[in-house]
Specification:
Layout: E1 15-23, H1 55-78, E2 84-87, H2 89-93, H3 96-105, E3 108-111, H4 124-142, H5 159-165, E4 170-171, E5 181-187, E6 190-196, H6 207-210, H7 216-232, E7 237-244, H8 245-248, H9 254-265, E8 270-272, H10 275-285
Parallel strand pairs: 1-2, 1-7, 1-8, 2-3, 4-6
Antiparallel strand pairs: 5-6
């Protein structure tokens, strides 16, 4: 879709910056929750593939709740950031202190699964149940149902349609652009538009787990270069910075996030906002497909 030449973000900004805080800890794979094996995603890379408890990995995830969240929270508060928290519903329900902080600040919470688990293997009925359970538990935990959705990596051919039918305004399961765009899906109620809010993997702090050669200062520099380049391009743009409590919440990494936020605070023509607000501004400026 060709955007109107006069399209700008609120206050005349040309770059919308979205800070995304993923809350997954406590909802990852665990044999205590009936899974066949422990969570395989681990900073140490030492998780057994057998049905054994991975106590070390479990505690690594819990670090994000106990120590990582307070650090990330203090930094976001200090810079007045309006983030989006993408939460696995069960993780948030099991971390009442985080849920309370979110209610106090009225930060947006988007759905990130009922648990932090894959849905690509699910049939339509199972996937719908997974999405609805996540939506309803987040609403019960925070007082407001989520407007947005982020799957764990992979989706099915039914995902967008189910999200549209179940009341979601936007989804993030896309990496194809530096701007939101419209999609239209055929639902039980007819054709229905949904905003696609592309996410970004390259500026995500997960790179420091999956690519250990990327050190915190490398990650910060990469993110800053991304922001600077997008701010120089013509027309509106959107940048996404993805965070994880158990990763950037470490004392040796949190300074890299501070570098990024300090840089953003000095950039002209930048609007830092939740994804729900960015999606709403986009929808107000660009008509959905007929």
């Amino acid at each position: 879709m060709t955007l109107p030449v006069d399209f700008t973000w609120p206050n005349g900004a040309t770059l919308a910056v979205s800070i995304v805080v993923n809350v997954e800890e406590g909802a990852e794979q665990n044999i205590l929750d009936g899974d066949k094996a422990p969570e395989p995603v681990d900073e140490l890379g030492a998780v057994p593939k057998k049905p054994l408890r991975a106590h070390g990995n479990e505690s690594n995830y819990q670090y994000g709740i106990k120590a990582g969240w307070p650090r990330v929270l203090r930094l976001l508060d200090a810079y007045g950031i309006d983030p989006t928290v993408t939460a696995a519903a069960l993780a948030l329900a099991r971390a009442p202190q985080i849920a309370g902080d979110l209610r106090t600040r009225r930060w947006e919470v988007a759905g990130h699964g009922y648990r932090w688990s894959h849905q690509f293997w699910m049939d339509e009925a199972a996937e719908r149940d997974f999405i609805v359970k996540a939506r309803d538990l987040i609403a019960a935990t925070t007082g407001e149902p989520p407007k947005g959705w982020l799957s764990r990596y992979l989706v099915t051919d039914n995902t967008r349609r189910i999200l549209a039918e179940e009341g979601f305004v936007y989804h993030m399961d896309d990496y194809s652009d530096d701007l939101p765009f419209w999609d239209a899906v055929t639902t039980r109620q007819g054709r229905k538009p949904i905003v696609v809010m592309p996410y970004a993997i390259d500026t995500n702090d997960m790179k420091m787990w999956v690519a250990p050669a990327m050190q915190p200062w490398d990650w910060a520099r990469y993110a800053i270069e991304t922001l600077d380049w997008l701010s120089r391009e013509p027309g509106p743009r959107m940048a996404s910075i993805g965070l994880h409590l158990r990763i950037v919440g470490r004392p040796g990494r949190i300074g890299a996030l501070e570098q990024i936020l300090e840089h953003v605070s000095k950039m002209p023509n930048v609007w830092v906002a939740s994804r729900a607000k960015i999606a709403a501004a986009f929808a107000a400026a660009v008509a959905p497909p007929s």
